[in-house]
C-alpha cells in the first residue's frame, strides 16, 4: 500500500518534505516513525489524513501522515 | 458602562457643543470637565455614532458597534515577553478597553532581539510595569492592571470579569495550568507559541484540552535549539490578536483550531485536532 509522509519544520532537516512510501499491509504509524528515526515523544502534532492520530494507529492504502514538532517559546 | 446621570451629563454637553467628532484634546477636556474616565467618554461617543479619531482607521474592519464592544471588553494577557509585548500593543491600538497583564519576570539582555517592550535602558525592570507605561502611552482609554506574578500565583480577584485570555507564555507547565484555569472559568484561550522560524496559534475553547494534547509529553519545544528570532513572535502575536478580536466580536466559529506556520518556507497549515 502507498502512504504519503509529510514532514514539517525541523523534521525536514536531513530528511524530506514529502514522500510516498510503499509499505506492507498492517503497518502502524509507529513503524513509520521508527524508519524515520523520530522518537514519538518528539512529535507534538501527529495527523493521519489531517486528523488527530496516534502512533499505534494502523494505516490504510492512500493514507497520509503529517508530523509537527513542539514549539513552546513565547 | 455609564450611569443614567453620566449619560445625561455627557448628552447635554454633546448637544450644547454640537460635538460631531472626538479628538484626543476634546476627550481630555471632557474628562477634566466631567470627572468621567476617557474610556466612558469614548464609549458614550460610540454609542451615539461618533467614532473617536483614534479609532477612525479601525472602522471598516470593525463596525462602530464592534468598536464599542471592544472598548467594553476585558481580556488577560499572560506573559509579556515576545508574544505578549506585541499582543498588548495591538490590543491597546484596537481599543480593547480593559487589559490585565501578567508576568513575574524582568527584562534581560537576551530579550532585546525580539521583545517589543524590552529596551537597552529598561534591562532589569519588571515587564508588567513597562507594560503599564506602554499601554498608557498608546491609549489613555485602556484600563490596564499589571501583575508582577507567575500565573499560578495570581490572586483570585485578578481573574474577575475576564472574557478572553491570551496565552503568551514560554513554558509548557504554565500553559497547561492556564488551560485548566480557563476551562474552570469557562473562558476561551487564544494560544500562541514560537520556536525559530516556526510558530503555532490557536483558539482553545473550554474543555477541548487542546494544549494538553499538543504538549502531552510536557517537553520543551524546538525553541531550545533554534532560539526565537525577531519576526516570528510578531507574526504569531498578530494572528493571535486577529483571532482574539474575532472572538470578542462574535465572528469566529466556536471550534477549537490550531494553525502552524513556517516562515522559513513561507507555509501555513490549518490543523484539526
From TrEMBL, chain A:
Look up the domain of life of the source: Bacteria
Identify the InterPro entries for this entry. Beta-grasp_dom_sf (IPR012675), Mopterin_synth/thiamin_S_b (IPR016155), ThiS/MoaD-like (IPR003749)
UniProt cross-references to Pfam families, sorted A to Z:
ThiS
- Report the transmembrane regions from the record: none
| UniProt protein name | Molybdopterin synthase sulfur carrier subunit
Organism field: Carboxydothermus pertinax
UniProtKB/TrEMBL annotation, chain B:
Q: Where is the THIF-type NAD/FAD binding fold domain?
A: 55-267
Q: Name one GO cellular component term.
A: cytoplasm
A family per Pfam = ThiF
Lineage, top-rank taxon, reads Bacteria
Q: Which InterPro entries match?
A: ThiF/MoeB/HesA, ThiF_NAD_FAD-bd, Ubiquitin-activating_enz
SUPFAM superfamilies tied to this protein: Activating enzymes of the ubiquitin-like proteins
- Give the molecular function GO annotations: nucleotidyltransferase activity; thiosulfate-cyanide sulfurtransferase activity; ubiquitin-like modifier activating enzyme activity
PANTHER family documented for this protein? ADENYLYLTRANSFERASE AND SULFURTRANSFERASE MOCS3, UBIQUITIN-ACTIVATING ENZYME E1
Q: What is this protein called?
A: THIF-type NAD/FAD binding fold domain-containing protein
The root-end lineage is: Bacteria, Bacillati, Bacillota, Clostridia, Thermoanaerobacterales
Amino acid at each position: 500500500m502507498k502512504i504519503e509522509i509529510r514532514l514539517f519544520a525541523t523534521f525536514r532537516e536531513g530528511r524530506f518534505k514529502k514522500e510516498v512510501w510503499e509499505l506492507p499491509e498492517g503497518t502502524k504509524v509507529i513503524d513509520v516513525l521508527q524508519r524515520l528515526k523520530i522518537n514519538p515523544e518528539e512529535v507534538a502534532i501527529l495527523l493521519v489524513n489531517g486528523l488527530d492520530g496516534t502512533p499505534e494507529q494502523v494505516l490504510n492504502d492512500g493514507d497520509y501522515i503529517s508530523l509537527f514538532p513542539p514549539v513552546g517559546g513565547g | 458602562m455609564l450611569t443614567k446621570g453620566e449619560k445625561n451629563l455627557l448628552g447635554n454637553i454633546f448637544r450644547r457643543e454640537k460635538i460631531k467628532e472626538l479628538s484626543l484634546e476634546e476627550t481630555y477636556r471632557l474628562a477634566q470637565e466631567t470627572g468621567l474616565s476617557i474610556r466612558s467618554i469614548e464609549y458614550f461617543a460610540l454609542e451615539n455614532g461618533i467614532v473617536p479619531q483614534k479609532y477612525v482607521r479601525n472602522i471598516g474592519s470593525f463596525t462602530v458597534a464592534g468598536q464599542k464592544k471592544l472598548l467594553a471588553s476585558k481580556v488577560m494577557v499572560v506573559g509579556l515577553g515576545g508574544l505578549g509585548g506585541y499582543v498588548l500593543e495591538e490590543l491597546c491600538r484596537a481599543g480593547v478597553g480593559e487589559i490585565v497583564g501578567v508576568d513575574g519576570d524582568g527584562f534581560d539582555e537576551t530579550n532585546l532581539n525580539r521583545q517589543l517592550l524590552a529596551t537597552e535602558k529598561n534591562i532589569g525592570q519588571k515587564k508588567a510595569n513597562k507594560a503599564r507605561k506602554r499601554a498608557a502611552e498608546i491609549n489613555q482609554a485602556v484600563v490596564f492592571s499589571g501583575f508582577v506574578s507567575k500565573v499560578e500565583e495570581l490572586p483570585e480577584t485578578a481573574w474577575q470579569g475576564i472574557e478572553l485570555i491570551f496565552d503568551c507564555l514560554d513554558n509548557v507547565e504554565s500553559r497547561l495550568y492556564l488551560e485548566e484555569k480557563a476551562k474552570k472559568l469557562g473562558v476561551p484561550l487564544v494560544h500562541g507559541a514560537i520556536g525559530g522560524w516556526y510558530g503555532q496559534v490557536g483558539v482553545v475553547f473550554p474543555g477541548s484540552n487542546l494544549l494538553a494534547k499538543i504538549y502531552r509529553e510536557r517537553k520543551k519545544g524546538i525553541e531550545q535549539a533554534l532560539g526565537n528570532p525577531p519576526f516570528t513572535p510578531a507574526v504569531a502575536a498578530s494572528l493571535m490578536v486577529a483571532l482574539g478580536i474575532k472572538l470578542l466580536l462574535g465572528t469566529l466559529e466556536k471550534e477549537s483550531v490550531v494553525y502552524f506556520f513556517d516562515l522559513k518556507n513561507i507555509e501555513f497549515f490549518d490543523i484539526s485536532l
